[in-house]
């Protein structure tokens, strides 16, 4: 159909009149260029050529078209086509617009596939849409099943689906349900709403109707064919299922089977006997793999790719009545992840590769840590890494409390490598480490020490000759031995420069 590169006020005719008489005014062109060269006859304009684009199954194609003046009216457009006689002009018939419809149970198929009924799209001239009420036989199609596009018009209005009688309300009112089966499972419900069977199949079609109300009647369009009918012999079916059987189906059994109730309510199934098989256009080779349920109509092909590859196309294809698969053969594409990048230039990223399950490792310089604490990422089937690269945050050690009866000489930042020094107040000494260093792990190399009270060296007592151990300061509760007048006395530091003990031998001189 013509795209809106040019807008021409024209009337569509389906044939070209042989007599070209009269005169037409130059048509209005909104866009594009046109030519009236060699288009005058007896001083009157009889055709206009122009360039435009035709949109079809092969995309938009530049084309030379023209309109002709016939009986004082513009007729066309006529566009160039390639034929055995060279390039000729042919009348271009408009396609049809499918507006999207919302009818309960109704399904529309186009080119062998069901479509979304609610979506609108354009159909080329000569194309056909098929309407059905799947599953076949459960509803009654009211209207035509084939809707053709010709010259911008649909051949019929779109049909509707009518509910059939249900099992809990089976009466002679309403169309009967139809059910079918084949012991060899050679049946295929096509998107066109037909029941496709292979030659040699044994097909049973049951008309669901209460036996106590009456006997339905089977009719069919096949000439010179006869099919057995009667109530099913199965115990749970003989009061409801009035059956017609196609034994060892032949091509001549193709036709329409209709079941009508005594009051004339009917429902039909279109049976097509055809040996349809699909073949692969090319050999399926790794990394692409296929698992076939079969190659006959209705059977399916399931595609997959080797690990590390992504399937491009449909993972499943159905063998259609046309003998073609419902979708082209897919391909396998290597899964690749992009090179990971961080917004933080301090992050060091090293990758083992960009294919599936490849690893990206993250690291920070000394004095920094990853945030969040994610050290690696993996390339996934989606082509994305499992996590985004982290950032680097400077490591800050927490503040330390000064020791009781002491204080801290510390830096400002508490960053990695920074040292703090612990000090004690007068008359106290440090028990523990006097220096702590901020580590890469974010904690300190040592805990806060203790400041404990002390005693100075006791004054030389009268007559004392020695004190052991000899120290500048003694810790609280620490003991010392003093020798006075050849008598050894044990004293204890009570802290705060106070000693405790019996020093009476040191108070008197020896005789």
TrEMBL record:
<dbReference type="InterPro" id="IPR013783">
    <property type="entry name" value="Ig-like_fold"/>
</dbReference>
<feature type="domain" description="Sushi">
    <location>
        <begin position="276"/>
        <end position="334"/>
    </location>
</feature>
<dbReference type="InterPro" id="IPR036179">
    <property type="entry name" value="Ig-like_dom_sf"/>
</dbReference>
<feature type="disulfide bond">
    <location>
        <begin position="424"/>
        <end position="451"/>
    </location>
</feature>
<feature type="domain" description="Ig-like">
    <location>
        <begin position="176"/>
        <end position="277"/>
    </location>
</feature>
<dbReference type="InterPro" id="IPR000436">
    <property type="entry name" value="Sushi_SCR_CCP_dom"/>
</dbReference>
<dbReference type="Pfam" id="PF00084">
    <property type="entry name" value="Sushi"/>
</dbReference>
<keyword id="KW-0677">Repeat</keyword>
<feature type="disulfide bond">
    <location>
        <begin position="305"/>
        <end position="332"/>
    </location>
</feature>
<keyword id="KW-0732">Signal</keyword>
<feature type="domain" description="Sushi">
    <location>
        <begin position="395"/>
        <end position="453"/>
    </location>
</feature>
<feature type="signal peptide">
    <location>
        <begin position="1"/>
        <end position="22"/>
    </location>
</feature>
<dbReference type="InterPro" id="IPR035976">
    <property type="entry name" value="Sushi/SCR/CCP_sf"/>
</dbReference>
<feature type="domain" description="Sushi">
    <location>
        <begin position="335"/>
        <end position="394"/>
    </location>
</feature>
<keyword id="KW-1015">Disulfide bond</keyword>
<protein>
    <recommendedName>
        <fullName>Locomotion-related protein Hikaru genki</fullName>
    </recommendedName>
</protein>
<keyword id="KW-0768">Sushi</keyword>
<dbReference type="InterPro" id="IPR051277">
    <property type="entry name" value="SEZ6_CSMD_C4BPB_Regulators"/>
</dbReference>
<dbReference type="InterPro" id="IPR007110">
    <property type="entry name" value="Ig-like_dom"/>
</dbReference>
């Amino acid at each position: 159909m013509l795209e809106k590169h040019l807008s021409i006020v024209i009337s569509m005719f389906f044939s070209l009149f042989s007599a070209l008489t009269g005169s037409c005014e130059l048509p209005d062109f909104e866009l594009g260029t046109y030519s009236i060269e060699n288009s005058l006859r007896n001083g009157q304009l009889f055709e206009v050529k122009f360039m435009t684009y035709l949109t079809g199954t092969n995309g938009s194609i530049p084309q030379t078209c023209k309109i002709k003046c016939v009986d004082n009216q513009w007729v066309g457009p006529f566009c160039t086509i390639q034929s055995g006689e060279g390039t000729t002009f042919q009348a271009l018939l408009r396609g049809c617009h499918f507006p999207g419809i919302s009818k309960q149970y109704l399904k529309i198929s186009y080119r062998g596939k069901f479509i979304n009924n609610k979506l609108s799209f354009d159909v080329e001239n000569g194309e056909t849409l098929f309407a059905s009420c799947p599953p076949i036989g459960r509803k009654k199609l009211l209207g035509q099943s084939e809707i053709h596009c010709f010259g911008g018009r649909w051949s019929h209005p779109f049909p509707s689906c009518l509910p059939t009688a249900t099992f809990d309300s089976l009466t002679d009112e309403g169309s009967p349900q139809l059910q079918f089966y084949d012991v060899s499972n050679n049946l295929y419900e096509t998107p066109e709403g037909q029941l496709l069977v292979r030659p040699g199949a044994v097909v049973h079609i049951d008309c669901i109707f209460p036996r106590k109300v009456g006997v339905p009647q089977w009719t069919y369009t096949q000439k010179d064919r006869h099919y057995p009918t009667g109530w099913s012999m199965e115990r749970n079916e003989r009061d409801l299922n009035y059956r017609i059987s196609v034994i060892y189906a032949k091509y001549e059994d193709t036709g329409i089977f209709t079941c009508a109730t005594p009051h004339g309510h009917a429902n039909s199934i279109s049976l097509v006997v055809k040996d349809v098989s699909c073949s692969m256009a090319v050999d399926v080779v790794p990394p692409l793999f296929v698992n076939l349920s079969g190659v006959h109509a209705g059977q399916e092909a399931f595609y997959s790719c080797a690990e590390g590859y992504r399937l491009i196309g449909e993972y499943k294809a159905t063998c259609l009545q046309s003998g073609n698969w419902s979708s082209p053969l897919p391909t396998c594409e290597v899964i690749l992840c992009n090179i990971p990048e961080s917004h933080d230039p301090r992050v060091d990223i090293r990758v083992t590769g960009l294919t599936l399950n490849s690893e990206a490792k993250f690291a920070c310089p000394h004095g920094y840590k990853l945030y969040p604490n994610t050290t690696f990422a993996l390339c996934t089937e989606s082509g994305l890494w499992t996590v985004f690269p982290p950032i680097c945050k400077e490591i800050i050690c927490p503040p330390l409390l000064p020791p009781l009866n002491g204080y801290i000489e510390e830096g400002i930042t508490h960053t990695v490598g920074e040292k703090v020094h612990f000090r004690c107040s007068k008359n106290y000494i440090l028990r523990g480490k006097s220096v702590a260093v901020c580590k890469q792990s974010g904690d300190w190399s040592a805990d806060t020490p203790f400041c404990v009270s002390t005693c100075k060296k006791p004054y030389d007592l009268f007559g004392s000759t020695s004190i052991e151990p000899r120290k500048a300061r003694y810790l609280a509760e620490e003991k010392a031995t003093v020798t006075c007048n050849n008598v050894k006395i044990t004293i204890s530091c009570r802290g705060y420069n106070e000693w405790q003990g019996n020093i009476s031998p040191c108070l008197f001189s020896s005789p």
